[in-house]
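Sample intake sheet
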Amino acid sequence: MENTSTRRTGQVLLVWGLLVVAANLRASLTGVGPLLDRVQSDLGLAPAVAGLLNTLPLLAFAGLAPLVPGLAARWGAERLLGGALVVLALGVAVRWIPTTAGLFLGTALIGAGIAVGNVLLPSLIRRDFPTRVGLLTSAYATVMGGVAAVASGVAVPIAQAAPGGWRTALGCWVVLALVAVLVWLPQLRTPGPSGSSGPGGPGGPGKPARGGQRLPWSSGLAWAVTAFMGLQSLGFYVIVTWLPQVFQDNGVDPATAGWLLFVFQVIAVLASLAVPRAMRRARDQRGLAAVCSAVLLVGYAGLFAAPGWALLWSAVLGLGGGACLVLALVFIGLRAPDAASAGALSAMAQSVGYLLAAVGPVVFGLLHSLGSGWRAPLLLMVAAAAAQTAVALVAGRGTVLPARGPRPEPAVPAAKSGVSNGR
């Protein structure tokens, strides 16, 4: 009885730890956009240099993601994630230093810390909660998106009211990062549930394996999951970077354009909450993923054809975008037979996906500069959403076999676990 109670307490602490970690994975990034003009003016940055503040973390995600499974195999997933949280907190603190070098060094450290969390959270959920992959993925995506929306909404008011201006608005998130470090400490001292394999390889939670699992580059299904992750990430970062400007150029005042972006993020959070219920009613995720991707396509097409209906298209894009983010993360857990494979698939999907996301806003802006207005860039997003809809029909079903290494543990039977339908 005592062991059961201890185990239950440990799982509760782990869930809280994962959610607090998730709260830190976007907040320090989404607060930059609303303050970018102030940062640029104060530090005398050229527009291209200032744009690196949004691009640098995405490049860190893409570059570091393939390394995470091997590092987790060597040090243990819990220790690696704890170290990443310390790096993230350090990065937010360094960004508070009133110099250009501090701003960019801090941003690079933030990107490195978040990159590790991006890869490890799906595999930790797959390892420790194999019967609740969809539910917990939705929960952490909701927390991540909700805090990110708050961060973008309070950035300007904090900069206006607090001593230190925009530096305080960016640096205040160190408090949340330190809270995450404290909440995660129990995971460094106590092992997780026995009999499972860690995200970096076999050997049990928190125990290093002999080597990391290779990324499944030869798997067509893995590439479908990667393409879905990349295309939905591209859409999200294009929207948060350019949507307010698209609205302003169509007659919306800047303040209203900012609130429309907030509407997009809030509806995305609400949509992410609905995904687990929808998944429980389906045998697989192909139809749901295709429908949600088609909703994005409608949003981009509507923005192209009738840009004056700004509120409607913000809501439609939020509805499709929020659902597709959860589905992209859920695919990582559900398409993998075990946690080690989930870690490898997560690394592959996020390395390529965030590289595509980093390129997307640049290409979108370049098409605007070369053409006449936003029609060509929006047609690009219509094409991207159409491709995502097609890819969803492949990514929503099946299992990615591991590239090499020991035979993975058997997946929990779908009829008993609910893994196949996301419960």
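Comment: The radius of gyration is 21 Å. The longest helix spans residues 339-370.
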